[in-house]
Design a protein that fits this description.
mainly alpha; single chain
């Protein structure tokens, strides 16, 4: 299944991705740093909240579900990760990078802080695009009526993996939030 077909099947997801991106483009072109900061903080907070849900709350719930229920949950709830998490990764990072450049933040920091900051950002992107996106695409490829044992097992494993990816991503988000708090305190 192609990405475009997956998008067509999840029409609600289009708005969840298109609206923040439209606001970002408008705010970035306006040159208003307050509005750009708003997009950066809001999408970052929603992204972090999603990972809190996946990695701290939902991971506990998933462990208690039988394999059939995991399949149903994977088919109905988590394909939104296909759209939201990678989009939030790029949008939040891009808005933050533009803000840092426009506010000349990097010139005030030693390279010993800049390098780890970019490393954490790269790790977040890898988790989103190398782990979460492919797992979400695989879940979307599974047919609603396909409930053979192999599909149930695959879906269950993908759902378990998505919760783990959310937990790992949350850890790195907390690290990068710590960096940002440190920069503000300087």
């Amino acid at each position: 299944m192609s990405l475009l077909l997956a998008i067509r099947k999840q029409k609600f997801s289009f708005g969840a991705v298109a609206i923040p991106w439209a606001a970002f483009i408008i705010f970035a072109l306006s040159g208003n740093l307050l509005l750009l900061d708003y997009i950066h903080v809001l999408t970052g907070a929603i992204w972090t909240g999603t990972d809190i849900f996946l990695g701290l709350i939902f991971i506990k719930v998933v462990k208690t579900l039988d394999i059939q229920t995991k399949y149903d949950v994977a088919q109905r709830v988590l394909p939104m990760t296909l759209f939201f998490i990678p989009s939030a990764t790029v949008l939040t990072t891009l808005a933050g990078l533009i803000l840092a450049i426009r506010e000349n933040t990097f010139s005030e920091l030693p390279s010993t802080l800049i390098i780890p900051l970019f490393a954490v950002g790269a790790i977040l992107a890898v988790i989103s695009f190398i782990f979460i996106l492919p797992a979400s695409l695989k879940i979307r490829k599974m047919k609603e009526g396909q409930r053979d044992e192999a599909a149930l097992n695959d879906s269950s494993k993908l759902l378990d993996n998505l919760t783990i990816y959310g937990a790992v991503q949350l850890l790195f988000q907390i690290i990068i939030i710590g960096f940002m708090a440190y920069f503000v305190a300087l």
